[in-house]
């Protein structure tokens, strides 16, 4: 049994030190800490901080927890020990000792109005009385599925819940309640209550068809674009897998995101200036975690064979990294390899480079092609009028801001840079063709709860 008491005690000590800081009595510091805008009519300090000591303690403690351990655990949570540390701290401190802003088994009485500049978090076991008003970025219940979190919040009659709410679980919602614009409601929403505003939707009535693509493999759990990451992606049950390809100096198709090996190996140099033998000598795993020491940079052929052996039956998105380097002949090489075997999976070609897609299409006209874009609507329009391009892969921020343009399009949209739960829920409402994520396991679990 692993003992994590030392780490839990260390966090508790940090919390005590934080709360004893005289800066908490400084109005300007508190405003900056909570990123409060200037020029409010009512003093933020009096209205929020002094109004509730519990609020101040909650946010202070959570901030210190995230500061000390958040980023570290993010990159080490695949380790059994650190996962145990994280779980123990989460349960013993954040849940067991702090609760949440409105703690476990909270009773929110008749007619209560609750507001907070950063939103309101309500525990799954809370009971919300009749005619209550809860405003701004409310989260009710939990997206977790393991005990003891499977509680059933109860929301009374004639309750108003503000915009951008997330409501999880098998929740009982009373009659004539109103859920504000942008809300996500997953279960048991009664017909006589209302979802108001745009794009408020009841996901219980939506068939979420979006395919989950493992971005560079399951890169949250293994070093990106390695065989380990692709194996993890298959294990997660991802509908698709995305990878990136370059050409080495001697003409081999190398799977890596960057144009150089500096970030994800212990070597240096441009891929186009290194031979495959030189690239194969590099360690592509230790930067992520020591347990991946000596992980090698794979060739596309090695990845294809691995996925075939694992009987992966989803879609493989091969991104041609030709927007910065013009790899002469890469289109012919990639197409020849993909067409050489009847694989267990289907595949898509994508690129930021329109000319590269044109070349690839001339080589393999029967394949599926997608144009990748950041926030460039002109690119989208170019793809729209190009018959052989069937897909568009935009940045999530552009996708969520351009619903009217997307609705008129005939193309398949697959969206990237989508990690946090709130963004995933927004995308599930819109049902794009695909969602690229570093953590396919989490996305799949959230999708199942819809």
What's a concise summary of this model?
With 450 residues, the protein is α/β, with parallel strands linked by helices. The chain has 15 helices and 23 strands. 33% of the residues lie in helices and 17% in strands.
Would you write up a description of this structure?
- This protein has 450 residues and is α/β, with parallel strands linked by helices.
- The chain folds into 3 domains: 99 residues, no CATH class; 106 residues, no CATH class; 238 residues, TIM Barrel, CATH 3.20.20.190.
- It is 33% helix and 17% strand.
- The protein contains 15 helices and 23 strands.
- Helix 11 links the parallel strand 20 and strand 21.
- The chain is globular.
- The protein starts with a helix and ends with a helix.
- About 10% of the residues have low confidence.
Contiguous runs where pLDDT drops below 50 for at least 5 residues:
34-56, 93-105, 143-151
Give the full name of the CATH homologous superfamily of the largest domain.
Phosphatidylinositol (PI) phosphodiesterase
Could you tell me how far the N terminus lies from the C terminus, measured between alpha carbons in angstroms? 36 Å
Percent helix range: 25-40%
Shape: globular
Top-tier CATH class of the largest domain = Alpha Beta
In CATH terms, what is the architecture of the largest domain?
Answer: Alpha-Beta Barrel
* Helix/strand class: alpha/beta
**What gyration radius follows from the Cα positions, in whole Å?**
25 Å
Helix count, per DSSP? 15
Give the strand tally. Answer: 23
Overall average pLDDT: 76
């Amino acid at each position: 049994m692993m003992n994590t008491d030392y780490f839990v005690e260390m966090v508790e000590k940090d919390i005590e030190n934080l709360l004893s800081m005289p800066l908490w009595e400084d109005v300007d510091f508190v405003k900056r800490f909570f990123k409060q805008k200037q020029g409010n009519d009512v003093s933020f300090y009096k209205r929020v901080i002094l109004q509730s000591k519990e609020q101040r303690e909650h946010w202070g403690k959570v901030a210190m927890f995230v500061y000390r351990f958040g980023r570290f655990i993010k990159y080490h949570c695949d380790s059994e020990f650190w996962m145990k540390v994280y779980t123990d701290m989460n349960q013993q401190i954040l849940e067991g000792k702090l609760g949440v802003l409105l703690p476990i088994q909270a009773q929110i009485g008749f007619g209560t109005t609750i507001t907070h500049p950063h939103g309101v978090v309500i525990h799954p076991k809370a009971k919300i009385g009749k005619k209550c008003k809860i405003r701004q970025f409310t989260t009710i219940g939990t997206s977790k599925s393991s005990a003891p979190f499977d509680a059933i919040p109860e929301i009374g009659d004639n309750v108003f819940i503000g915009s951008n709410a997330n409501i999880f679980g098998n929740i009982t919602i009373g009659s004539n309640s109103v859920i504000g614009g942008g809300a996500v409601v997953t279960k048991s929403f009664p017909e006589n209550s209302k979802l108001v505003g745009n794009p408020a939707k009841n996901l219980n009535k939506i068939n979420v068809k979006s395919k989950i693509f493992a971005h560079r493999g399951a890169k949250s759990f293994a070093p990106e674009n390695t065989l380990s990451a692709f194996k993890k992606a298959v294990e997660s049950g991802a509908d698709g897998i995305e990878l990136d390809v370059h050409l080495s100096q001697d003409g081999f198709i190398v799977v890596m995101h960057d144009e150089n090996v500096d970030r994800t190996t212990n070597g240096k140099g441009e891929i186009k200036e290194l031979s495959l033998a030189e690239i194969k000598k590099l360690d592509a795993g230790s930067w992520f975690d020591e347990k991946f020491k000596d992980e090698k940079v794979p060739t596309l052929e090695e990845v294809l064979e691995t996925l075939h052996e694992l009987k992966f039956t989803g879609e493989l998105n091969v991104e041609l990294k030709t927007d910065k380097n013009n790899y002469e002949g890469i289109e012919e090489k990639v197409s020849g390899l993909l067409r050489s075997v009847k694989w267990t999976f289907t595949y898509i070609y994508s690129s930021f480079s329109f000319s590269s897609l044109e070349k690839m299409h001339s080589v393999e006209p029967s394949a599926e092609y997608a144009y990748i874009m950041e926030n460039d609507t002109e690119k989208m329009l170019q793809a729209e009028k190009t018959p052989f391009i069937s897909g568009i892969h935009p940045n999530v921020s552009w996708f969520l801001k351009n619903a009217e343009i997307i609705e008129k399009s005939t193309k398949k949209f697959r969206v990237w840079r989508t990690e946090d739960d709130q963004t995933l829920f927004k995308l599930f409402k819109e049902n794009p063709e695909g969602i690229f994520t570093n953590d396919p396991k989490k996305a799949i679990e959230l999708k199942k709860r819809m």
